[in-house]
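Project standup — Tuesday

K.O.: blocked on the structure for the chain from last sprint. Re-posting the sequence here as requested.
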Amino acid sequence: MTNLDSLEEIKKLDKGMALESVEKFPMQCRQAFDEAGVITVPEDYKNAKNVVIVGMGGSAYAARIVKSLFLTKLTKPVELVTGYDLPSYVNNDTLVFLSSFSGTTEETLTSGEKAKGKGAKIAGITSGGKLAEFFKGNNYPAYIFSPKHNPSNQPRLGQGYMVTGTLMLLRSLGVIDFTDSQMLGAIDYIKVNGKRFIQTVKVNNNPAKKIAYDFIDRYPVLFCGDIYEGALHGVRNPFNETAKQFAAYFSIPELNHHLMEGFSYPEDNKDKLYTVIFESDLYAPKIKKRIEITKDVLKQNNLLFTNYKLQGGSELAQMLELLQWGGFVTYYLGMLNGIDPGKVPWVDYFKQQLAK
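H.V.: unblocked you, prediction finished:
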């Protein structure tokens, strides 16, 4: 098993600079803040009556975050599309936001052409590819970034760009609202918070390394309050892609209406499931109460679980904190599983077969 405190052992597995990308998450966020925040958008875009965000996999994290973190503040409907087709209501009063890190995602490109055909207002985010050409060729407002702080060039390891860039551009488009100081405060927080998780901090003092060991030969199960459901989705995915391990996530209160009846079987749940409950002082009182009762149910079912207290001073800070935690934990778990965290062989295989 890989010694997480040995950079030499880690480098034998990590051939694609994944660790550097994980550690540079705050730098990605700051670059996106500086660059996306100054993009000008047509005034009539702000009059859109509804918003459709199109993205797949890691390129859809920001949309899920918008729908959960900003739910009570949204002044117009926002829908997420993870496929080829658009809702029939899309027209010239709809803002279609296209999101693809690589700029080559065929579902997103297909939806973009359909949105253009419907006369929709189009904007988006990408690092290049055909999507960048689509934006430039049609003079659509977009954040086209150079991912200099993502040396791995893996989309899931460049979420600082995708999440922060999307939030900044959607703010300019009048979809969501927050202040510069709130976002900068959140970025400054994770810059400091991430120092606890970096590779040079030994296992005994490194919460991310410690919990990665707890996940060995177990199924990670992640719980959070509903405002962070979008961010937790962005944590679950790299368990699959980076650590190559099955994982599941659920939000409170939704899980209280079904999941607790599913703890009994298979009988080895008590040995195989390992739950992390993300707690926060920013949760509503009803969510806090539900978390305590949920912990009681887990205890009575003899299930393994632990708590992780989010410490950021704002919802934006805690959202980024959660994504940062996921980046480090899934990287270290990949190391313990003995794999190169940057490679996605089955995703690549699928795309190759699809292209035939």
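K.O.: great, moving the ticket to review. The radius of gyration is 20 Å. Residues 52 and 96 are 5 Å apart (CA to CA).
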